[in-house]
Specification:
Helix content of chain A: over 70%
Order of helices and strands of chain A: HHHHEEHHHHHHH
Helix content of chain B: over 70%
Largest sheet of chain A: 2 strands, antiparallel
Distance between the termini of chain B: 22 Å
Radius of gyration of chain A: 20 Å
Strand order of the largest sheet of chain A: 1-2
Number of domains of chain A: 1
Low-confidence stretches of chain A: none
Strand content of chain A: under 5%
Strand order of the largest sheet of chain B: 1-2
Shape of chain B: globular
Number of helices of chain B: 17
Largest sheet of chain B: 2 strands, antiparallel
Oligomer: heterodimer
Mean pLDDT of chain A: 84
Structural class of chain B: mainly alpha
Number of strands of chain B: 2
Number of strands of chain A: 2
Radius of gyration of chain B: 22 Å
Largest interface: A-B, 38 and 41 residues
Low-confidence stretches of chain B: 368-384
Number of helices of chain A: 11
Structural class of chain A: mainly alpha
Amino acid sequence: MLLGYSFSDWGSILAMQGFAGLSLFSVLLLMALGLAIIFGQMGVINMAHGEFMTIGAYTIYVTSKLTEQYFPAFMPYYFVVAILAAFIIAFAVGYAVEFLLIRRLYKRPLDTLLATWGLSLIMQQVFRSIFGGREVSPTLPQWLMGSWSPTATIDIPINGLFVMALTIVVTTAVLLSLYKSRWGLKVRATTQNRSMAGAVGINTKKIDRITFAVGCGVAGIAGAAFTTIASTGPTSGSQYIVDTFLVVVFGGAASLLGTIASAFSIAQAQAILTFFMTNAMGKVATLLTIIVILMLRPEGLFTSKIRK
Amino acid sequence: MYTLYERWLGGRQGAIGLLILALLIFAVMPATLDVFRLNLVGKYLTYAFVAVSLVMLWGHAGVLSLGQGVFFGLGGYCMAMFLKLEASDLISTARQTTPGIPDFMDWNQITSLPAFWQPFHSLTFTIIAIFVVPAVFAYVIGAAMFKRRVGGVYFAIITQAIAAILTILIVGQQGYTGGTNGITNLKTLLGWNINTNSAKYLLYYVNGALLVGVIMICRYIVTSKFGRLLLAMRDKEDRVRFSGYDVSNFKIFVFCFAAIISAIGGAMFTLQVGFMSPSFVGIVPSIEMVILAAVGGRMSLIGAVYGALLVNYGKTVFSESFPQLWLFLMGGLFIGVVLFFPNGLAGLYQTYAKPYVDPMLDKMSGKRSASSRIQVGEKERAVK
């Protein structure tokens, strides 16, 4: 008996909070993957990354409303199409943003930070003008509702399982395309040595643009995952941006494996701590721990051995 | 005399700039604005402290802190705690369950004054705390970061996280800090009512004088050898390190100095506006303070003041009448300043106005008329 809970209670608490942590982990990881590509690979600080997530979330919302209105029979399947749409729209906006704004600022990382912050303000206001200030939720398909109870005291929501599966698929896809595909090779070559990559015939500007857009697209998918666990408002994304940056920095900026590990530990710590403390104190404790660890080990958990 | 003119005032150009600013703050504004508007200007000028601190930190030392709101808040909260204790005397809080403690503590079922509030009964302690608390806090952060050569983007993100933490902490610990509402209902400073019109005038002048004083101290630092080293460090950190200087100590010093300046601004904010709340501490206000410095020109101490006045005036006007437009404008400002005016207002002056102003000044002071560019060249040769 600890703190008035029996041991089986403890098992259930850990399992359920652990699972709540996994849902948070999924969203954080999907956000952080996109950011790790943009920040870790390209060195651009995208403060508007949260808003790309919001774009994805609103895409899901709009698709669900359209499907409900015009093709009710399609309702059980729309979510998969909507995820694709979320990726494509976020990708397209990211592509445009890179072309109009980011490419002028590659040599000034701190300035990209300010400019993209401005971009995030504008995007938030656009969301507010289109969708209103109130939070909205898509109508989720029936099979995403409900929960799975392996024992009497453990209750695991289905949508959490779905988001987990989605995260695993997307993460695998990103890792594969970065480390096994021709495009990934070009991206890594451009990051390691821009002028050499250009000299061997890689169109580095085009690579930059597509890399940035892919990062944004992944954030769009994070938005899709987000809609299953919370409702979407104009500032939903910006609430995650600091956490996401900490995930990327904590994991070691250039290492995708580090990003996965740090997203996992941060989300788990936060979910389990918030059960025992108030929400706010759990978050403070998590963030403080990260900062202290970062002060001891500024390069993050995993460092990549790239010669600069 | 030479030191005063060249170092503290910044030579002819600096002295004239400072004189115009002082005239604007001390004569033009009070003469043309009513008390309410003047008080608003006073509020904007407290943000100018933070903007000036960012010019030192970001413009001159190349260290971008996205957590200056933390220090603004620390200064403001120290001042607010003192004023709150004075406002919570036994008579005015007689109806509370526990008389003599601040009202929000009573609402949160706290029955005795927490230990860290106790020393704020003393004004001397409070004034010392306004300087020491932010400086110590900045030293701890700075020493941990800069000694391990964490800089640039990483430093910016971590300071931002610290701003987030402090906000969550203040909001979460309602009983000790006043929560989201902050510390409100501040009335007197040593028995002197700070809400009267005469007090507002006086506080405005004190605030303006402190600001001009801070700018002069910054000028002195910038024109010293240390100031040169800061610039060198910003542009080629490794070279300065290899020349045998301890770069991290410079950075720690500037960070602490900037923290103190911001805290003075925060304390003056509390006095003039009459409350302090976490909405001036978090991520959003901290990054907005950076844009004040960016609009003024990240290298210009005086520009920062104009940046603070202009942006905050715009914010007041637009967020009152067109709240939707304001976020677009603010966002556009961030992007526009970075893309098109990286040197801000000061840069505009340098390119467009200076070539006309300088010959005029030369004529007035009776020197031979020469284009400013040649003069700068001569000056540099003389320095060498």
